[in-house]
Amino acid sequence: FCSFAASFCAPSSPPLGSMLAHGRVLAVAARHVGRATPLLATRAVAPSVRAVAPLAPRAFGSAAAEKVAKTLETEIKHEEEQYEQAKEIKAFLKKSDFKLVDTDGDVNIALEREAGDKKVRVEWQLTSPFNADMDTEGGEEAMDQESTDFCVTVENKSSGSGMVLYCSTQTGEDHRYVIGNIKAFSNAAEKDNVSAYNGPEFEDVDEKLQEAFDEYLAEVGLDNELCDFIDASALDKEQREYIRWLKTVKSLLSA
């Protein structure tokens, strides 16, 4: 190294470029001293990534969607032309003290009123116009009109106690409903408790008690006209919700 430095400083030293090149050779040679074989390079090479253009999203406005939308439009037109609200609905609401609770998109329907210090609420759901019980051989629908399940809640406004009567409509002119059970509750928590006792089978209680309950329900507004309204509005609600569903789907596919 001293002789190399001396020659570097001597006036007769070779040009700077050749000296730097000679130095690089010596440095490489020094790194490989004692190695029997040369070391192969193991540098990892990153794989080449070719840029791919993103696929364009398929729009809803396809030919299939347009076909469905046109079919829905035809169905909407047909249903609206065929729809006619039953006369019992308007007639009942016109003269009744009950207030109708009916929200679009909700299958539940209710009537509410106050009777003294009591709140009365009648609740039921929409009903399909098609009878599920059909004669498989003859293909004819059962003769009996499909009943509508409903419940009547009578609640004390101050104490929160009350009872829920689980009922169903039935055909006939004398008595248009039957009572299944009567659940009693002393507060709101007990009212909403799904495991609370629902009372005995109403047909098993004493006949005099059954007659007394019938008279009481008549006082709170449960009569044949209300049962007619329940059956008519359950079918009407299903029809209106079906038309609303058709329009909602058509709006989605046409966007």
Care to describe what's here?
By secondary structure, the protein is of the alpha+beta class. Helix content is 40%, strand content 18%. A six-stranded antiparallel beta sheet has the order 1-2-3-4-5-6. A hairpin with a 5-residue loop joins strand 1 (99-102) and strand 2. The longest helix has 31 residues, at 224-254. The chain is elongated and about 75 Å long. The two termini are 84 Å apart. The relative contact order is 0.13. The model is unreliable at 1-45 and 136-143 (pLDDT under 50).
Structural class: alpha+beta
Helix content: 40-55%
Helix/strand order, N-terminal first: HHHHEEEEEEHHH
| Overall 3D shape | elongated
- Span from first to last CA? 84 Å
**Beta strand count:** 6
Q: In order across it, which strands form the biggest sheet? A: 1-2-3-4-5-6
Low-confidence stretches: 1-45, 136-143
Biggest sheet details: 6 strands, antiparallel
How much β-strand is present in the residues? Answer: 15-25%
Q: What does the radius of gyration come to?
A: 43 Å
Number of helices: 7
What is the average of the pLDDT values? 80
Quick recap:
The chain is α+β, with helices and mostly antiparallel strands and 255 residues long. The chain has helices at 2-9, 16-31, 63-82, 87-95, 188-192, 207-220, 224-254; strands at 99-102, 108-115, 118-125, 149-156, 162-169, 177-185.
